[in-house]
Each structure stands twice: as structure tokens, then as C-alpha cells.
Specification:
It comes from Microbacterium keratanolyticum. By secondary structure, the chain is mostly helical. It has one domain (11-273). It has 8 helices and no strands. It has helices spanning 11-35, 67-81, 91-115, 119-140, 147-179, 189-210, 215-234, 240-280. Helix 1 (11-35) runs antiparallel to helix 2 (67-81), helix 4 runs antiparallel to helix 5 (147-179) and helix 6 (189-210) packs parallel to helix 8. The relative contact order is 0.12. The model is unreliable at 270-281 (pLDDT under 50).
Length: 281
């Protein structure tokens, strides 16, 4: 069976385009609901305040959540971009569109579950969302972006999305464990805080190295970790140790991405020069 040409949109392409647009609008509706603008309870106040900045040692400070505005703008931008006739049959949209739609739906479901006070369900949903975003990130590397619109609406948006949800998953799971009375097997909360931050930073550093220095995931992860540090310094429960560890982890994640990016560029440059010289002789 032959693969549909990028020059020939299929009915499935049209269905995907419209469905992804609806998913973008659903995500935007969820954002307004989660902010309290449509009468719902703001996420930080829902579920008995389990996700508030002062609920656990791993909760980011309030301003951290402003990154959602950038992510939602990117998701809506992608939904509009992929709807254009010129984008209908592109292989990149065929490869990623349905997965991006799944992330939009899961995002809305997560907000609804928190609004309803189903904290345990929200943990399952955000874990699946993280898995979907990892799949998107891996698949996105299979086909390079075409131009700056691709870079902004797909690579940058989904990278920020992945990096932030990585931190949000840590905060969400911690909030749920605290809510159900988990005592950490008797270990002090600060010890658990340090372990979780180190594990999260290690995974983020590994992602930066594997992706050859993709900056968007590292920026979003570092953003979340830094705001965890701020919360522990200026809010309750306070912990200078957890705060310092979060700040250090944020710096390491960014440094790893920058080093990987610079290393990859320097590694490619001799090959490019050699190719140019070879082609000229």
C-alpha cells in the first residue's frame, strides 16, 4: 500500500486538521476554566489547595504558572497553522497532529479532574500527558522544522510543554502523596524533596544531551525548578536546602542544554567545511 503524497491531501488529513483545531479551542477553554475566569475554581485553590505554592516542598511559586499562557498561545497557533491548505498533507503534521491533539485533550481533562477534586485521577492523567509529550518530542526529531512558524508553533511550543509538564508531574504526584497522608517511609520531607529534584534534573539533563541541546524543554524545566526554589525561600513550607538544590538543578539543566548545543554545532562545522571544500574541488 503506497504512502499518501505530501502534495495530495486525503480525507483523513482534513479530519485531522479540523479535529486538532477543535482540540486547540478545548485546551484554551480549559485554560480559562483553570484560571477561574469562567467561574471555575483556580487550579491552585482547587482540590482543597493541594496544588497551592505552600502545599508541599515541591510546589512552584505562583508566577511559575504564567508559562501556561505561552504554551496555550503556541497550541492555538499550531492549531491554526496546521489548518492552512498548504499544511494539510505535510508528513510532519501527519506524524505529530494526532499526538498533539491527545495532549490538548489530556490537558483539559487534567484541569477538569483537579476542579472536581479528583487528585488521584489528575496524577494518572498528567502521567499519560507526560508520556504523550515524550512521544511528540521523539517523533519531532524525525523531521526537521520548515521555517520559523514550524519552529515556534511546534518545536518551541511542544518543547516548553514537555519541560513544564515534567515539573508539573513532580508537583502533582507530591501533592497527591501528601493529600493521602504518605509519610515517606519515615524519611524527612526534605530528603524526599532533594531526591525528587535530583532525579528530575538528571532526566532533564539526559534529555538535553540526547536532543543535542534543544533549548525549549530545558528552559521550561529550569523555569519550574527555579520557581520551586523561590517558593521554598519566601513561602511555606520553607527549606533553604530544597530551595538551593532547586536553583542548582535549574542552572545545571540549562548549562547541559547549552553545552550540548554548542558541542553539536562545533562537531558539525568541520563536516560542513569539508563538504564545501570537497564540492569546490
Amino acid at each position: 500500500m503506497s504512502t499518501p503524497s505530501e502534495n495530495t491531501p486525503t480525507p483523513a488529513d482534513r479530519v485531522r486538521q479540523v479535529t486538532v483545531l477543535l482540540g486547540g479551542l478545548l485546551a484554551l477553554f480549559g485554560a480559562f476554566l483553570g484560571s477561574g475566569a469562567l467561574g471555575g475554581t483556580p487550579v491552585q485553590d482547587a482540590a482543597g489547595g493541594a496544588l497551592a505554592a505552600d502545599a508541599t516542598l515541591l510546589a512552584p511559586y505562583g508566577p511559575a504558572f504564567s508559562i501556561w499562557s505561552v504554551i496555550y498561545a503556541g497550541l492555538l497557533g499550531y492549531a491554526i497553522w496546521q489548518l492552512l491548505p498548504s499544511q494539510a498533507a505535510r508528513l510532519r503534521h501527519r506524524l505529530l497532529g494526532w499526538w498533539i491533539l491527545a495532549s490538548q485533550v489530556l490537558n483539559a481533562l487534567w484541569i477538569l479532574s483537579v476542579q472536581a477534586g479528583f487528585l488521584g485521577a489528575s496524577v494518572v492523567i498528567i502521567a499519560v500527558l507526560l508520556l504523550v509529550l515524550i512521544i511528540v518530542f521523539v517523533r519531532m526529531r524525525q523531521l526537521d522544522a520548515r521555517g520559523w512558524v514550524d519552529m515556534l508553533t511546534m518545536d518551541a511550543t511542544m518543547g516548553l510543554y514537555l519541560g513544564w509538564v515534567t515539573v508539573a508531574t513532580i508537583a502533582n504526584i507530591t501533592a497527591w502523596l501528601v493529600a493521602i497522608g504518605f509519610d515517606g517511609f519515615g524519611w524527612p520531607p526534605e530528603v524526599w524533596g532533594l531526591i525528587v529534584i535530583v532525579v528530575g534534573a538528571t532526566i532533564s539533563v539526559a534529555t538535553a544531551l540526547w536532543s543535542r541541546g534543544r533549548l525549549a524543554p530545558a528552559i521550561a524545566t529550569a523555569w519550574g525548578l527555579a520557581w520551586i526554589g523561590v517558593a521554598r525561600v519566601i513561602d511555606e513550607p520553607s527549606s533553604a536546602l530544597v530551595g538551593a538544590t532547586a536553583f542548582t538543578a535549574a542552572a545545571l539543566v540549562l548549562a547541559a542544554a547549552l553545552i550540548a548545543r554548542l558541542t553539536d554545532r562545533s562537531r558539525r562545522r568541520p563536516e560542513t567545511v569539508e563538504a564545501l571544500v570537497g564540492g569546490a574541488t
